[in-house]
Amino acid sequence: MVATAATSSIFPVPSPSPESGGAGNKLVGGPANLGGLKSKPVTSGGLKAKAQAPSKINGSTVATSVESLKLEDDLPSPPPRTFINQLPDWSMLLAAITTIFLAAEKQWMMLDWKPRRPDMLIDPFGIGRIVQDGLVFRENFPIRSYEIGADRTASIETVMNHLQETALNHVKSAGLLGDGFGSTPEMCKKNLIWVVTRMQVVVDRYPTWGDIVQVDTWVSGSGKNGMRRDWVLRDCKTGEILTRASSVWVMMNKLTRRLSKIPEEVREEIGSYFVDSAPILEEDSRKLTKLDDNTADYIRTGLSPRWSDLDVNQHVNNVKYIGWILESAPQSILESHELSSMTLEYRRECGRDSVLDSLTAVSGANIGNLADSGHVECKHLLRLENGAEIVRGRTEWRPKPVNNFGFMNEVPAEST
């Protein structure tokens, strides 16, 4: 019994119910009524004798059983150990889970309540859609920070790349894209590709960083063996027309690099997508004259394509030619004017090992005072070193407008 009392000082033993009986009641409360039976009283002498010699464990004095019994008698007895009160407190876990779900639901509802801006894309990760009875392809493009120049507006190369991307996605969405660059399945069988022969562009206003532009494109027949593709580029928020462009394309054999007629099999593939409409731009019928070293005012030599300038058909992308043409444009025009229109005639392709010259002649303006000139017109020629013509062109320029910051869109002056 003393061993039991000593053990209870470390591991409390719950008090048994009056019906169950137990030795604990004999020590704590004296005689207990056990169903009409009286327990035998215990004399205190034995307890006193054992209490006079406190036990030691490893040299340390430990409390006696009597002291433990007195302490236990003063404290309320713990509740009986049952299956229910041995389980963890599930209410705390449930409350934590509920809090997490409520917080997540609140965040989701806040996102759902957030009003949509009118300039937000409906499908920013898509490739556009077919509209107007399946004859027009439409795609949206955000103007990104790396697509603008020093004057805070998109460059002409950016605009032209968006036009080209829309044209290719049009072919892809129509299910006509083979394994070539814009070639249909029948064209791939016959090793045919599209090449541009003429491009005409009019820019009313250049978009700026953060704008979203909407590009519509469609195709029509051009003569017996050509195709015309037109574009309209608008401000997605206001609907304002920013750019209009029209181009003429012909077929070329990828192996022989010679022009080809449109085979009947290819005509059947693409004929149902042709739109019977006039060009979006009235054709500029003025003849593009050839420049030479004597008639050009500015010449830039030693231009050569890089590997990244080639497309999947292993020839220089037509947008790259525009950059080369502007390489010889006078710096004073680039800083004070913006390109308002452009007409290009593509006469020959160049390969990866070609070296080119860019020639520009300025007409209708005082070359010594171009920055203060009004509208300026330039003639261009891109040629190989041996004199073979690549592209003839004409560009028109207008003074840059005052931007939202209250000054001209000019290149900042270099600090000294």
From TrEMBL:
A GO cellular component entry from the record: chloroplast
Record-linked Pfam families: Acyl-ACP_TE, Acyl-ACP_TE_C, Acyl-thio_N
InterPro entries: Acyl-ACP-thioesterase_N, Acyl-ACP_TE_C, Acyl-ACP_thioesterase_NHD, FATA/B, HotDog_dom_sf
Gene3D superfamilies: Hotdog Thioesterase
UniProt similarity note: Belongs to the acyl-ACP thioesterase family.
Domain named Acyl-ACP-thioesterase N-terminal: residues: 1-123
Protein name per UniProt: Acyl-[acyl-carrier-protein] hydrolase
Chief site of localization: plastid
One Gene Ontology MF term: acyl carrier activity
